[in-house]
Amino acid sequence: MWLHNRNTVLTVAFIKGVGMKSLGFSIVGGHDSPKGIMGIYVKTVFPNGQAFDDGTLKAGDEIIEINGISLDGMSHNETISIFKNIREGPVNIKVLRRK
């Protein structure tokens, strides 16, 4: 029997700026996680945010890239800093969804 790789890579596009809704999701993980070295994952998608309205991003998706910056080996705080440093403009998030 052949096992097929059912992982999917998706790119989700948001925009930050004045008058825009929040991105609307929380993250967990990082190389400094209390649970051990792990990737950065979407923990929760909140109602009333861009992620909820778009409907693509799901809890459990692994965030592998933000605006072309690889999150491989990043800590939780480093990832938060990347998001916070994008004050205006596009936020393109590449995620890996395991099935």
From TrEMBL:
Cited PROSITE patterns: PDZ
Classification via SUPFAM superfamilies: PDZ domain-like
Domain PDZ: 11-85
UniProt cross-references to Pfam families, sorted A to Z: PDZ (PF00595)
Protein's UniProt name: PDZ domain-containing protein
Upper classification of the organism: Eukaryota, Metazoa, Ecdysozoa, Arthropoda, Hexapoda
